[in-house]
């Protein structure tokens, strides 16, 4: 356990939480010579990016695919700039269909190329061909201009913002539903173009159009999955942090952020759950605003304005995640490395309301699911016999309110409730993989309470604050708080997702260092990410093929 410090400047910066945002901030600060300490309440680092094992099979609850990993694209530049690119290998998911849309009886694939996507959808919907190109071009323009904003510096660039971001400005205050209705008429096509709303957790009528554009554009070049799951990204980041002299301590829950001053509040350190106090010049919280301000800072230290903002803040939906190990030939059954979004052919806003009702026991199945087979996305994780599948649906956290006060030892009622919900997911999954229930080796269900326990997410939310129009961009919580020397990063600050949260950490570090995002991510060109094809092993480097062969041979030897 960490020992109490005798000086109030034991560290330059203490970071609460080791999610992607906290770790990227830590790397940037440590690289600039700061003495950095990262404190994580869980027993492994990574937040939503961490990996865990069931029966020796790996799962990652918050990493299902990542985009923009080609040379020159933003996530690629992020990892190069953090100095971790050479430590990462990614598999490109099925380029012909990195997303499979199962909408009622309709089956539509989304290819991993902007022009091919336009052509594919145009062929399927010939009357909408021109509208498709116009709409998707608008999506791309809005997203690219949104990405320009944190890069703009200097008087001239600021003066020209209205001209450089005219598409973004035109659509900034509209919902996805409003904008797509201006461009697209076919109801099924609208659903296809909106289906990735699952990546931000708000239906078309409530979702911000610019945010949805950012999500779609993130995947216009396809989806990629890290070899080793999300834990591989965490390992690369923690190794980089330690290389630059930073420290990370797990199993260290922070109970309080230490505040000094009556009129002018100032953060000076943290207090751990066991009473240990550690001091630093700056504190960064990678936790949600509610956890940061109300739980760790304390209401008595907050202005009336901030208290009012916190009271009005809504958090994103939460989820049920069913983790499965199966002894089934899922590829023969029709799966590949692409994700499956399954939903009824009905109004998306109505469906979302139905999904997030407090009572989730009404029907016998969850009809809307996101399904991902990680052993097909990362061939090195497949042992030749068992596949790992993650099936996810969104719900309202109130569904679990009656169990919130239970301690770690869960009641019989809670376990029975979980079993009922797991069966509902299985009943929906049977539509995709008929007979799968006869091939289950092991299963576990993650609930909102699971998310809150392991991730410390408010109400078990999966995307931080709700990404509605009034809670993003200029209305979001800022990196620099009203309390001197207290900063924030993570999904509730800049953006959610692995890349969005990571960039938030870079921007928070830039605020502390009086630098810019681009300056902190400058690299010498020696870093490269290795990308392999999940669907084609013919070009794998020898060491990856050997890794795959060794994995399978272990299972074969056990069967002999």
| Major sheet details | 7 strands, mixed
Number of strands: 19
Q: What percent of the residues sit in helical stretches (DSSP H or I)?
A: 25-40%
CATH topology of the largest domain: Polyamine Oxidase, Chain A, domain 2
Structural classification: alpha/beta
Helical stretch count?
Answer: 20
- Mean pLDDT, to the nearest integer, reads 92
Our Rg estimate from Cα atoms comes to 23 Å
CATH class of the largest domain: Alpha Beta
How would you characterize this protein structure?
The protein starts with 10 loop residues before the first strand and ends with a helix. The chain has 2 domains: 11-63 and 229-314 and 466-520, FAD/NAD(P)-binding domain, CATH 3.50.50.60; 91-223 and 315-455, Alpha-Beta Complex (Polyamine Oxidase, Chain A, domain 2). The chain has helices at 20-31, 74-81, 114-124, 129-148, 155-159, 161-164, 166-171, 176-183, 187-194, 209-218, 230-243, 289-297, 304-312, 348-355, 374-377, 412-429, 448-455, 497-513, 517-520, 542-559; strands at 11-16, 36-39, 52-54, 57-59, 89-92, 99-103, 106-110, 224-226, 247-249, 254-260, 266-272, 277-285, 318-326, 339-343, 369-373, 387-395, 440-446, 486-488, 530-533. It has 20 helices and 19 strands. The longest helix is centred in the first third of the chain and has 20 residues, at 129-148. It is 36% helix and 18% strand. The strands form 4 sheets. Strands 1, 2, 9, 10, 11, 12 and 18 form a 7-stranded mixed sheet that branches. Strands 7-6-14-15-16-13-17 form a 7-stranded mixed sheet, sandwiched between helices. Helix 1 (20-31) runs parallel beside helix 11 (230-243), helix 1 runs parallel beside helix 18 and helix 3 (114-124) runs antiparallel to helix 4 (129-148). The protein has 560 residues and is α/β, with parallel strands linked by helices. The relative contact order is 0.18.
